[in-house]
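Recall that a protein's primary structure is simply its ordered list of amino acids. Everything else, from secondary elements to tertiary packing, is in principle encoded there. The following example makes that idea concrete.
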Amino acid sequence: MFNFQDKKYHFYSLNASTMLNNPWTKGTIYILPQDKFKKSDNNIVHFNEWVSHEHVKPIARLEVGIEDFYFRDKVSTHKDNESLLKTWLLYKVRSKRAKPTMARNSR
């Protein structure tokens, strides 16, 4: 997710070599204490990324699978050496071409 002029946008793109390796798997979301983190930047267009420079202990853990990822049908694929700006600019076109079953095949 990134913010631009107080609007939030999501885009999901994996590089081609990652997609070829069928990356969909089960995982864990860790709930972490917010007071240990700070925003990573303050640019006009920035990613909503938070950073901690110290070790933090999770408050809770949540097991998840691809079926829990609401935006799984909006994941696009970009070239391995493509710039972030180009990936972002082409996201809408690519995500419309993404196959809805692509993310579900790994269950």
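Confidence is low (pLDDT under 50) at residues 101-107. The chain has two helices and nine strands.
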